[in-house]
Amino acid sequence: MKKVQISQIIVNRGSEAVFNGVITASHLRDVSRALDSLDTRGEVVLDFTGCSGFDGVVAARIWSGIRLLEGSGAKVRVNGLAPNLMKLLSDYTALDKRDLPEDKQGWLFRHFSDIGEKVAAGIESARGLVNFSVNSTFSIIDALLKPKRIRWTLVAYYMEQAGVMAIPIIVALQTLLGFILGYQAGIQMGTLGAAKYMPKIIAYSVLWEIGPMLTAVLVAGRSGSAFAAEIGTMKVRQEVDALEVMGFNLCGYIVAPKVLALYAVMPFLVLLSNFSGLFGALLAGEIFLDIPARVFVEEIRTSLIPLDVYWGMIKSLFYSGIIAITGCFMGIRVRGGAAAVGRATTSAVVSGIFQVILADALLSLVLAELRPPII
Asked: Measured between alpha carbons, how far is 222 from 236 in angstroms, rounded to an integer?
């Protein structure tokens, strides 16, 4: 290779690079080109006899170039380097040889530490949810006392989205579930000669637990996630921050219409879900178990009391508040971009369903005390 001059650096036959004058950061590209052009198959000489100085950025590039050349199998020899410049390169070499601190904690400690951090984050999230629920409750009460402040058009919109649009899926799933439960219960009880009691068992199961619970799970999946995604997107676009700057009460302006809408539609969704489940069981009895529809209805009428019908609707009020407030809270606490909105949506559904099940367990104890014994 012939002699090639790159700015203040001369490359001789690909095996020697001669550095001249003061080399600064403006010559960094020339330094890189010179080092990259060197032949790594033999000895490489870096001659700094004519170099009067270079700064730290150039020193770092020369040091990394030497490391790359040595890694490629070349033997690197440095000539004529002034003591102060040699010390600058030696500092980078010392940093490279410095041992990293050993991890003395071990995998077991890190494992339990990770669990502890997640538990602490969960406790902090639960504390924030409680505070948010209290603030939202007071805002909703204040809005009901001053109904002119409520955006009723928005309440009607959420009633349509959370209520009317959910009717097909709730009716279809609850009818199928009632059909399956009625068929399975009738077949098993038929082996004991007690198939005639299937309507009563299905009626208690659907009205007390299955109807309200399935409705709450579906609404949490549809509306709870939608609330979290909507508010989370507003948070990412800084619309929520703008409302705070303008002095709006976020709980009253954003949360209240959603909560009121669910309070309005959830009891009717539960009632519709209960009737759909009973209708599915009636079809199973009529088709497979030789239980006429008239007998099915009469068995239900003689076994149920008004509290059985109202109880699911009463529970739905607790469920609607849990689902709406949890979804709004997960949306409000979004930090970051689109990925954070997705995580908030998932958290809204999972947390909402968990709280609904917990509330259902507590309300079941109340029903056991209020309802007269089944005879």
From this structure: 21
H-run or E-run covering 319:
helix 306-332
Percent of the chain with pLDDT over 90: 40
d(CA 4, CA 374): 102
Amino acid letter, 22:
V
Domain that holds residue 203: 136-370
CA–CA gap between residue 293 and residue 16 (Å, rounded): 100
- Please state, in angstroms and rounded to a whole number, the distance separating the CA atoms of residues 268 and 131: 29
Alpha helices in 246-305 (DSSP H): 250, 256-288, 293-303
Nearest to 214 by CA among 330, 345, 315: 315
Q: What is the DSSP letter of 74?
A: P
* Cβ proximity of 323 and 262 under 8 Å: yes
CB atoms within 10 A of CB 17: 23
Q: Tell me the pTM.
A: 0.69
Residues 147 and 93 in one domain: no
Helix (H, G, I), strand (E, B) or coil at 49: strand
- The values of phi and psi at residue 77, to 5°, are -125, 130
- Residue 53 burial (CB count, 10 A): 14
Considering its fold, how many domains does the chain have in total?
2
What tokens does 104 get?
């003395």
**CATH number of the structural domain spanning residue 75:** 3.30.750.24
pLDDT (tens digit, 9 = 90+) per residue, 131-168? 999 998 988 898 888 888 888 999 999 999 999 999 99
CA distance 32 to 58: 9
* Tokens 């507590």 -> residue: 362
